[in-house]
Amino acid sequence: MSPARRTIGILAFTQIASWGALYYAFAVLAPDIQRDLGMGKEAAFAAFSWSLLVAGVAATPVGALVDRRGGQGVMALGSVVCAIGLAWLSRCTTLASYWGAWTVIGLAMSLTLYEAAFATINRKLDAGAPRAISTLTLFAGFASTIFWPLTLALSSRLGWRDTYLAYAGLQLAACLPLHLWLGRDAPRAPLPAHAPRDSHTLGEAVRHPAFWKLALAFSANVFIFSALAIHLIPLLQSLGHAAGTAVLLAALVGPMQVAGRVGERVLGRDAAPQVVGRFVFSTLPAGLLALALVGTQAWGVVLFCMLYGMSNGVLTIIRGTLPRALFGARNYGAITGAMAVPSLLSKAVGPLAGAALLSGAAGPLMLPLVLTGCALASLLLYLSAIRAPAAALDAARPASYPARTSPDRKHP
Length: 412
Hints:
By secondary structure, the chain is mainly α. 80% of the residues lie in helices and 0% in strands. The chain contains 16 helices and no strands. Helix 1 (3-37) packs antiparallel against helix 4 (95-112) and helix 1 (3-37) packs parallel to helix 6. The radius of gyration is 21 Å and the shape is globular. The protein starts with a helix and ends in an 18-residue tail after the last helix.
């Protein structure tokens, strides 16, 4: 088995298992947790949102660590931290203990989920990283499809506590040895003082407006997706669709995410990520506008779910490949970790803001209308970011360094 196939195969399994246990299982188990611990929905979800904030804070140092040391040790440690957090959550009985468990789980997210996996691929596979990231997201897109029914089946037999305990065991029994099997990466030799460099440092990247425009564009999209991940079915019911119909229509989103990723591999195989990103950021506002205008009709919801799902599916790939194309590969983990911080904050805020908009006096249409505005803002930010020519990005570099010549850096 080639190193690339081994790396992708390992991470495909561990991403599905980690996303399923740390993120998707909670949507199924939250009602049981609330009843058992005697807390309201707001308190239960607030701790979950807190874990996303913790992941955001830890993202940059974790990415920098992967850049220096490779992903084997970082992600193996993440499996151990996952197991500790999930086992703690399975045994908590007080509100303080509940928040403590989610704090540990937030750290585990930063060590094991996409940002860490993408940085690991970038460190190990170098020129083949963009295609490997695309392939990984294709497999990892099935995490919710697998873990929602699996969690429901386990919780009906074991209860929520032993379900989380079983997932802790899965991290130690399967994910830990697989992450160790990634193998060590050769240390990167330091560049000579005046040698040409094809990558920005973290400091150089964050000094350029393109970095922040992209970070905010990604953040706006993640805000939309996190709000709808929790509130899409209630929104469809508020628009007049029966509960069964709303669930059936919403179920289109998952397959369309996979379809979008397949399309990216087939149709966008040789395209620069900047070009593919135009599709992602243009499709989402069109879908949300369709939901706002004709969301009371089933065909309108189908159109929305198709556009929304494809956009969400491909966005994950763009988040993994575009920073490398613009800022280089050498400090990829630190740069993508820093760029992910606003997105993780938006992911934490999205469900709370969505609940406020959906329950407001203006009616259910306010939510898709506000989200359409966010999608249009993200499109404008993205187009402004990728419009920066190569020389403009190089202007962020100190004068003593030669300009970049990276073949990864393609501009439309």
